[in-house]
């Protein structure tokens, strides 16, 4: 793979990473509801999930999923249901005032956020099939396939981690201005709504 081909892939990866989707939406939701630490955990969950999805596509699983409507239906609803339930719980807890105090900002644990974004990025069949169509455009037939595939996977993971991290830091920075109890309460409600929206977006993106 020559430098121009790699640079083109890196730029395309950045564009894909900056486009808001279910993963980005959930990261913003975690930032608003639980702070930067939890949001960054969700970023790394998305990184691992994307890496798994890309690896699966590179070994041909995407082709199998494309021919299996049942797998599409099942997998897209697993990730969507997780986010909707978590968002609903967050809004309910905020309504009771249990997330208003500063000591409770981490009510959504980093581990929960990590596995949540991992689930919606790694088991989204459309993500896998996207990689099936996307990555071959940047594979040179004059060089070894697996070495190029590994380079593309590492590049995409690094670029998208940076773009997701930007969203996490920006949303957390905005949430940092929400200091008052009433404002914090509404930020928790908005964050829960964003998580529910991420779940619905997961279904829409996989339809």
TrEMBL record:
<feature type="transmembrane region" description="Helical">
    <location>
        <begin position="6"/>
        <end position="32"/>
    </location>
</feature>
<keyword id="KW-0472">Membrane</keyword>
<feature type="transmembrane region" description="Helical">
    <location>
        <begin position="145"/>
        <end position="178"/>
    </location>
</feature>
<keyword id="KW-1003">Cell membrane</keyword>
<keyword id="KW-1133">Transmembrane helix</keyword>
<feature type="transmembrane region" description="Helical">
    <location>
        <begin position="71"/>
        <end position="92"/>
    </location>
</feature>
<dbReference type="Pfam" id="PF01810">
    <property type="entry name" value="LysE"/>
</dbReference>
<protein>
    <submittedName>
        <fullName>LysE family translocator</fullName>
    </submittedName>
</protein>
<dbReference type="InterPro" id="IPR001123">
    <property type="entry name" value="LeuE-type"/>
</dbReference>
<keyword id="KW-0812">Transmembrane</keyword>
<feature type="transmembrane region" description="Helical">
    <location>
        <begin position="113"/>
        <end position="139"/>
    </location>
</feature>
<feature type="transmembrane region" description="Helical">
    <location>
        <begin position="39"/>
        <end position="65"/>
    </location>
</feature>
<dbReference type="GO" id="GO:0015171">
    <property type="term" value="F:amino acid transmembrane transporter activity"/>
</dbReference>
<feature type="transmembrane region" description="Helical">
    <location>
        <begin position="190"/>
        <end position="206"/>
    </location>
</feature>
<dbReference type="GO" id="GO:0005886">
    <property type="term" value="C:plasma membrane"/>
</dbReference>
